[in-house]
Write a structure and sequence with these properties.
The chain is an all-beta fold. It is built from no helices and 24 strands. It is a single-pass type I membrane protein.
Length: 228
């Protein structure tokens, strides 16, 4: 042992003028000349790269799509929401793909007749990859849902009332003598105490107006009544 034949260990002589080496941790061989490599057994699966940290420890450098000590877990690539709104992200081993709704295509479903949305006030529904139709919100019409529906087109107001179109609604402006949502109710002017009939006349309600008729024994236009 005088020549220190054990490179990384302790030399122990024996009775036959020979010796043996007791190797330090991490070394082996007749002269303790070989360093142990934990990666030599190829402990990392899935083509991961084994990186030696010490003679007894290693780490696995995982390929794309995997993580974990032994690269045993698949990364969910859909967590970052790579697909556009309304499309479905499908995770696969080491990758993902986007399942596009009708009318969209592209790696992230970013292309299609509905992108950008051509429907001003409505939902775009794709027809194939190049055409679409619009499902309009209430009160709108037209191919692109950009035309306000004229609620007065159906003539909802009664008689000579004026229909005023509003968004998703209408308003009836009633002529004198009428009231109600569609101006279909006759005002009884004789109940208002505002009619100009003579005290010697009777007020008669007629459709949309009233008449003054002199009482028996009087004559005139009803506004002025004279005794006979």
């Amino acid at each position: 042992c005088a020549s220190s034949p054990c490179n990384n260990g302790n030399c122990t002589p024996n009775s036959t003028n020979t010796f043996y080496c007791k190797c330090n941790d991490g070394w082996y061989g007749d002269a303790c000349e070989i360093e142990k490599n934990p990666c030599s057994s190829q402990p990392c699966p899935r083509n991961a790269t084994c990186y030696k940290q010490s003679t007894s420890h290693y780490v696995c450098l995982c390929p794309n799509g995997y993580f974990g000590r032994q690269c045993e877990q698949d990364i969910d690539e859909c967590v970052s929401s790579p697909c556009t709104e309304n499309s479905t992200c499908v995770d696969a081993v080491g990758l993902y793909y986007c399942k596009c709704p009708e009318g969209y295509y592209g790696e992230s479903c970013e292309k299609g007749a509905c992108n950008p949305n051509p429907c001003t006030y409505g939902q775009c529904i794709g027809i194939g990859a190049a055409d679409y139709r619009c499902k309009c919100a209430a009160g709108w019409t037209g191919k692109k849902c950009n035309i306000s529906i004229n609620e007065c087109a159906s003539n909802p107001c009664h008689l000579n009332a004026t229909c005023v179109d509003m968004h998703e609604a209408y308003f009836c402006s009633c002529p004198n003598g009428w009231y109600g949502e569609s101006c279909n109710k006759d005002i009884n002017e004789c109940n208002s105490n505002r009619f100009p009939c003579s005290s010697n006349a009777k007020c008669l309600n007629v459709i949309g107006s009233y008449r003054c008729v002199c009482k028996e024994g009087y004559y005139g236009d009803g506004i002025k009544c004279r005794g006979e």
